[in-house]
From TrEMBL:
Superkingdom of the organism of origin: Eukaryota
PANTHER family, A to Z: PROTEIN DISULFIDE-ISOMERASE C17H9.14C-RELATED, THIOREDOXIN DOMAIN-CONTAINING PROTEIN 5
InterPro entries: PDI, Thioredoxin-like_sf, Thioredoxin_domain
PROSITE patterns: THIOREDOXIN_2 (PS51352)
The keyword Lipoprotein is annotated on this UniProt entry: no
CDD domains xref list: PDI_a_family
Name of the protein: Thioredoxin domain-containing protein
Length: 184
């Protein structure tokens, strides 16, 4: 018995590779985030994942050029986040509320809040050895003093901020206040 090779019609020889290519392109298009367009005159663009809150979380956003000059003086609580991270999205309203309610500490304790988008500022986050999101770190005069490991609730984060602001206030007693951070 003789076995004949399978004959594939010519149009199918073209269709299968085209379908494979179309499937690959579709997968890539869904997996690749589209960067936000830069507005005229704006130097920092914040990328946002679809569904990441209707607006960005307000506050100071640091980048590789502003991180060291900003954090070199005063106490800074910095959130390193990814706009694509579900935990970051869930934590964002708490961060916003605590930073707004603690804004008065900038004058009384030189205690400030900032955020770093690790998608847009990957090199900075790598330099800071950020391994997961969100990561919240405390800096005194440009030196990392530790990572916040507490609960991501408003009450726990507020208690942490009050304690660290009080600690820093004791450190700076008698020192002149540093100038406010430069606008990004």
């Amino acid at each position: 018995m003789r076995v004949l090779p399978l004959q594939v019609p010519a149009f199918l020889q073209l269709v299968f590779p085209l379908l494979s290519l179309l499937s690959l392109l579709s997968s890539l298009a869904q997996a690749t985030p589209t960067p936000a367009p830069a507005a005229a005159g704006v130097g920092v663009v914040e990328a946002r994942a679809p569904g990441f809150m209707s607006s960005t979380v307000p506050g100071l956003h640091l980048n590789s050029k502003t991180f060291q000059p900003s954090t070199h003086a005063g106490a800074w609580l910095v959130e390193f986040y990814s706009p694509y991270c579900h935990h970051c999205q869930k934590f964002a309203p708490t961060w916003e509320d605590v930073s707004k309610m603690s804004a008065h500490l900038a004058d009384s304790s030189q205690f400030r809040f900032a955020r770093v988008d690790c998608i847009a500022q990957g090199d900075l986050c790598a330099d800071q050895k950020v391994k997961w999101f969100p990561t919240v770190r405390l800096y005194y005069d440009g030196v990392e003093k530790g990572e916040y490991k507490g609960d991501r609730s408003y009450d726990d984060l507020t208690a942490y901020v009050k304690a660290k602001a009080s600690d820093y206030r004791k450190i700076i007693a008698g020192r002149p206040a540093p100038p406010p951070p430069a606008a990004a």
